[in-house]
Amino acid sequence: MPTTLSHLTFIVKDLDRSAQFFKTIFDAKEVYSSGPKTFSLSQEKFFLIGSLWLCIMQGEPLAERTYNHTAFKIQESDFDEYLARIKDSGAEIKPERPRVPGEGRSIYFYDFDNHLFELHAGTLAERLDCYAQSRIYDPFYSEENQARLARSIADAEAGKVTIHELIED
Ligand SMILES: [Fe+2]
Asked: Does any domain span residue 97?
């Protein structure tokens, strides 16, 4: 099993613009810049975000946006500070998806090359707990209904279903 995340690499159109993006929002510290002399496929810069090794390499940006994303943990108390940084960076903030109560706040935003990032204030343990608790918000949730649903699915999978004819007037 791999021990930990080694590094993240993002392909960007403009190295300097993206360097500023990561510095402004993530407090990224630049530790290497290839300049025109490259050892890899193209010009690149390395950063540290905390202890995370992040690379950006010059190249063509993603052709389209998807929900694939990279999420960083932030403290809930720093939420507004990060929102201001993202706005300062010129990044485009994406409207938040619907969330169940207790899921933890998030900011989603795109860089200049169609990469989606998230700053999230929650943890995995909180997320799992909130999904388990969210059943109580479902007005139709009950152990009895869940058991009935499970029986219906098992019957359908076993072919024990009644097909009703559609009666037309
Ligand atoms: Fe996420």
From this structure: no
Verify whether residue 92 is a known catalytic residue: no
d(CA 84, CA 95): 15
- Give distance in angstroms: CA of 47 to centre of ligand 1: 22
- Domain ranges, residue 38: 1-59
Tell me how far the alpha carbon of residue 67 lies from the centroid of ligand 1, in angstroms: 9
Consecutive 10-residue averages of pLDDT for the chain (169 residues)? 94 97 97 90 95 97 95 94 94 81 86 96 87 68 74 82 65
- The model carries a pTM of 0.76
Contact 64, 114 (CB under 8 A): yes
The alpha carbon of 18 and the centre of ligand 1 are apart by a number of angstroms equal to: 21
